[in-house]
Every structure is written in structure tokens, then in C-alpha cells.
Specification:
Blueprint: H1 2-13, H2 18-30, H3 37-50, H4 61-65, H5 70-102, H6 112-152
């Protein structure tokens, strides 16, 4: 009995050999009155092994008779590889052209007063965004402190 227990442990670890699994299957098959879960599992495996598919598949004659020749398959593969290469090349070219167009966002200002005005507007924009994010952080900290109060109770 201890030998079977050791085999079961090896089975659940996935380290049994096929011969050891056959020993386990035959043991649980020989004990019909047993209600252990292992017996049910091995019975289930045996029942599933006996099942076969009752569905029959028919392949239409059109498909089986219309196999392309080796040259046609080779030509198709060649054409598809060229098409894929061209699509990839066009994508790379499109990306490069868009990158070059979008990277020219420079503004050249000769007047110092205009440059100062643009700089003040940029800092005002940044300040507004910083205020919004600071407010969001403070709200989250207050919410976090409330949860800590409930957690400590």
C-alpha cells in the first residue's frame, strides 16, 4: 500500500514512468468498490481514451484536384516576398518623411521683446499644468490618508 502511495505522489509530481502509470491504472481498475478520487480520475481518463469523433469530414473534390504546381507555388512566394518588402520600404519612407516635417517646429525670433513675450507665455502654460498636477496629487494624498484612518481602526 505504501508503494502505491509513493507512486501516487510521483504521479502528481509528474515524475512517473509509463510502467508506473500502468501499475496505478491497473490497481484502480481492479478495485471497483473503492470511492477514492484517484479511482474516479483514472476511470475518467479511460473513458475519454475510448471516445472517438463521430463527425466525418469530407473534402470537396474541387480542393483536392486543384493543387498548384511547384512552379506556381514558388512564383507566388517570390511575388509575395517582393510585395511585402515594398510595403515595408514604403512604410519606412513615410515614417522618415513625416519625422523630417514634424521636427521643424522651431521659431526664430529676432526681436528680444517678442522672445521675452513667447518665453513668458510658455512659462505660464507650464505653471498652469504644474498647478493642476499639484492639485491632483494633494487630492490623492488626502484620499490616501482617509484610507489609512479606516485601516488603523
Amino acid at each position: 500500500m505504501e508503494h502505491l502511495q509513493n507512486l501516487l505522489e510521483k504521479y502528481w509530481e509528474g515524475t512517473t514512468s509509463l510502467e508506473e502509470e500502468k501499475i496505478l491504472k491497473s490497481h484502480w481498475k481492479d478495485q471497483p468498490g473503492s470511492s477514492k478520487p484517484e479511482r474516479a480520475i483514472f476511470e475518467f481518463f479511460e473513458q475519454e481514451k475510448l471516445k472517438t469523433s463521430k463527425r466525418e469530414f469530407e473534402i470537396p473534390a474541387q480542393i483536392t484536384n486543384s493543387q498548384p504546381s511547384g512552379r506556381v507555388v514558388h512564383f507566388r512566394r517570390y511575388v509575395f516576398s517582393i510585395a511585402a518588402s515594398l510595403i515595408l520600404l514604403m512604410g519606412v519612407m513615410w515614417t522618415i518623411s513625416n519625422y523630417n516635417q514634424s521636427s521643424s517646429n522651431e521659431v526664430i525670433v529676432d526681436d528680444p521683446e517678442t522672445a521675452l513675450q513667447i518665453t513668458k507665455e510658455a512659462f505660464a502654460l507650464l505653471n498652469g499644468k504644474m498647478d493642476k498636477s499639484e492639485k491632483a496629487i494633494i487630492d490623492n494624498i488626502v484620499h490616501f490618508e482617509k484610507t489609512l484612518i479606516f485601516k488603523s481602526l
